[in-house]
Specification:
Length: 177
């Protein structure tokens, strides 16, 4: 059975919005990010993340990381989109059931970048198997915060791994108890 892993870039003060402005990717962290993509078969993306990533990366070529993301299948929950491009499939009227069905299939794990409003549903339905918080040694002071507008009542996490990077970032891995 596949896992759904959520990986989120976070500043020291808990901001997750606009990581392109503050995320510190050196050679080591870039190589690690690319290596991690080998563990995943497909992306789960909230509608806004899908639209933002597609606008920024959907037509970019020549970057190994972005080329890999462009080639991967993507699954998107949306009540407003009628169709998708960029190897994406809409999850339909019951995204939780669709995610559960995807997880039950054999294959590599599913990855979701960022904490979005869709997390409220995923957490409530117990569909996220692992959280990876990539803490960057920066302070943003404003923007969307980690788990903003997401009910985390009853979410009890256990630290299972940590990885320190030379750029001062720390990746903390948690699983729900």
């Amino acid at each position: 059975m596949r896992k759904l892993i959520e990986s989120t870039l976070v500043t020291l003060d808990g901001v997750i919005e606009a990581p392109e402005r503050w995320a510190l990717f050196d050679a080591e962290s870039s190589a690690y990010s690319l290596e991690q993509l080998d563990d995943y078969e497909a992306f789960v993306m909230g509608r806004k993340t899908y639209e933002t990533f597609y606008a920024n990366w959907g037509h970019v070529t020549g970057n190994a990381y972005i080329d890999r993301i462009n080639a991967m299948p993507k699954y998107v929950p949306s009540r407003s989109l009628a169709e998708t491009t960029w190897n994406a499939t809409l999850l339909g009227p019951d995204p939780s059931s669709a995610i559960a069905k995807l997880k039950s299939r054999p294959g590599k794990d599913l990855i979701k970048y960022g904490t979005t409003r869709f997390d409220a549903t995923l957490i409530q339905d117990g569909l996220i198997d692992e959280f990876r918080f990539w803490y960057m040694p920066v302070v943003a002071s404003s923007g969307q915060w980690l788990f903003e507008q997401v009910d985390t009542t009853g979410l009890d996490l256990r630290l299972t791994d940590e990885k320190r990077l030379q750029n001062g970032s720390v990746i903390l891995t948690y699983v729900p108890r």
